[in-house]
Design brief:
The chain is built from twelve helices and six strands. The protein has about 290 residues and is of the alpha/beta class. It has two domains: about 160 residues, 3-Layer(aba) Sandwich (Rossmann fold); about 90 residues, Conserved Hypothetical Protein Ylqf, Chain: A, domain 2. It is elongated, with a radius of gyration of 21 Å.
């Protein structure tokens, strides 16, 4: 992480615009606070990726929130069947933001001088997939796990932009423990770090507070008798879901870990529906 921060800081002097890729389900939690310091004097675009997995109405609230803060916010789905949809929208946004510089360069006779953009984002936010869409091929390495991009890469986007890719990086300490939990739920933090049963009990607390019908509809159970604030109740709920799915071991004991892994996988794959785990007003209440 320290090496990546140093590299970003060193290269920032030649960068015109910074593209920060966020997870639309957790836009606040997926923003690396170090970027605000490193890119404080640069034009910024916030790309809310995985918008197809997030609640559409809540994503609209985040768009408005970021625009009021002076950022250009753009929800996209990097895996959209229309492969160039997000890329075209971003390119149009970059041209609009950088129009004064482009026109100034033309007046000086630098007609084909490319704009230099840097793309940053936390691990597993879909950055490499989106870059491949931007460059129209396999310019970046992709994988469904955090930490694939190892070093900086310069890539061409048409004839107008030079794009620097950077490794996904997390900051060393979360001031709010909920940030870490939300990132773990989306897969930004390696699964091996968290106990999955503990993680999913917290995840179910969030889901029930948002909409208890999410779990009821998917797993054909009732959540009415379970108190979200009570961890023991959440463990009992996890057991009921496991029982409903038939995840039993020898002696009829419910396989809680298998149940927890299934719930996480189904959330990440969109099988629980379009879910956002945080709201802009929660960010405003953060000290």
């Amino acid at each position: 992480m320290t090496k990546t921060k140093r590299m970003i800081a060193t290269q920032m002097g030649i960068i015109d615009v910074v593209i920060e890729l966020l997870d639309a389900r957790v836009p606040f939690s997926s923003r690396n606070p170090d970027i605000d310091t490193l890119a404080k004097d640069k034009k910024r675009v916030l790309v809310l990726n995985k918008a197809d997995l997030a609640d559409e109405k809540i994503t609209a609230l985040w768009e408005e929130y970021f625009r009021e803060k002076g950022f250009f916010a753009l929800p996209i789905n990097a895996k959209d069947n229309n492969k160039k949809a997000g890329a075209n929208r971003l390119t149009a946004a970059l041209k609009k933001i950088m129009r004064p510089k482009i026109e100034a360069q033309r007046k000086r006779g630098r007609i084909n001088a490319p704009i230099r953009a840097m793309i940053v984002g936390i691990p597993n936010v879909g950055k490499s997939t989106f870059i491949n869409q931007l460059v129209g091929g396999s310019g970046a390495i992709t994988a469904d796990r955090p930490g694939v991009t190892r070093g900086r890469q310069w890539l061409k986007v048409g004839g107008e932009f030079d794009l620097m890719d950077t490794p996904g990086v997390l900051w060393p300490k979360f001031d709010d423990k909920m940030v870490g939990l939300r990132l773990a739920c989306t897969g930004a933090i390696r699964d091996e770090i968290f106990d999955k049963i503990t993680l999913v009990t917290h995840f179910m607390q969030i889901l029930i507070s948002i909409n208890p019908g999410i779990l009821e509809k998917r797993y054909k159970i009732s959540t009415a008798s379970f108190v979200p604030e009570n961890i023991n109740d959440m463990l009992k709920l996890l057991e009921e879901i496991g029982n409903a799915r038939g995840f039993k071991m020898k002696g009829g004991v419910i396989d809680l870990e298998r149940t927890a892994i299934t719930i996480l996988d189904e959330f990440r794959g969109g099988k629980l529906g379009r879910i956002s785990l945080e709201l802009p007003e929660e960010k405003e209440q953060t000290p």
